[in-house]
Amino acid sequence: MGAVAALLVAGGCSGDDSEGSTVKGVSVPKAGEHFASLADWHFFSDISQQKPAPGVEPFQPIAPLYSDYTNKRRFIYVPSGTKIQYSTDGVWTIPVGGALIKTFSYVLDEREGVPSVITPDKERLLETRVLYRESETAWVAETYVYDESGKSAERKVAGATIDMSWTNQAGETMTNAYGVPNVNACQTCHGENEAMNAQGLRTRQLNWDHDYGDVVENQVDHFERIGWLEPTGDREQLVDPYGSASVSDRVRSYFDSNCASCHREDGFASSSGLWLDWGNTDPSKEAARWGVCKQPTSAGGATCGLQFDVVPGKPDESILLCRTASEDGKVRMPPLATKVPHAEGIALIRDWITQLPAASCSQ
Q1: How many other CB atoms are there within 10 angstroms of residue 239's CB atom?
Q2: Within a 10 A sphere around the Cβ of 203, how many other Cβ atoms?
Q3: Which of 13, 147, 290, 303 has CA atoms 20 to 30 A from the CA of 251?
Q4: Model-level pTM?
Q5: Rg over CA atoms, the chain
């Protein structure tokens, strides 16, 4: 993965003194080597049902990233005797030897909900991505693509395309040429070298309850109880973007999850001057930070012929809405992981711009 690929042979495995050994049922590869099959990691006691093995824990952000209507299951592995480095407002850092695991799938009829038992006629497993922290400065990024039965997933370096169709909540047939990314694409969203991370692994995303099967528990409290985390300080919390909170808080949560990995002061799109992380979209902050009456500075020709990122009260004159709704790959935002416009997100952004106090933008 670019600079990451050059580091795949650097550093050693940690969490156990013996490379390639099994810890709590989980195996890790020797430095510079790669597991050909997802099963080699032993993250799951049952891959086809996505049941985590002992020592692997599920987690679920309150405002998940949209990825073309895929369903996602997220897991984390922390080696025995190690802890996650906690942050009040930043991304948590997993220890050396730890891994983040995320499985993408399509529920074939959204009206029926996520099935309790995964079968090929109900839910199509697509891929599982693994971010493994091999050393203090080296991460391994792997992608494993499932066969049609969902019982086996094999390593793919160059990515893949999976043609999919499913029925949405409204009973409409949806289609997508789902793109499994190549490993070089990982650093665009997740960073590189020692700075790699998962944007959803942070306090404000996990400070809410999760059903663990035998107990429903706040996720921050859960990780503290099992000895993986030592939380300190106040806890921020996002809201469900599609829940009952105010439009302002819901769109701020949506932006924080779907836009802020790039659109923040130290992000890939910092030069845009459009900063959409939770802190910068606080109503007390300067409105231009989150686009109000701000002219684009680095959009090139992808402005939809409009002048301002956000025109209060006028969603159809706002570049932000146009780019979010666009199907043109040169205009569309986010530029990665989406091909199918997110109807619910577009509606939320439209509602938010509509209710902003009217203001006259001028050059």
Answers
A1: 20
A2: 23
A3: 303
A4: 0.88
A5: 21
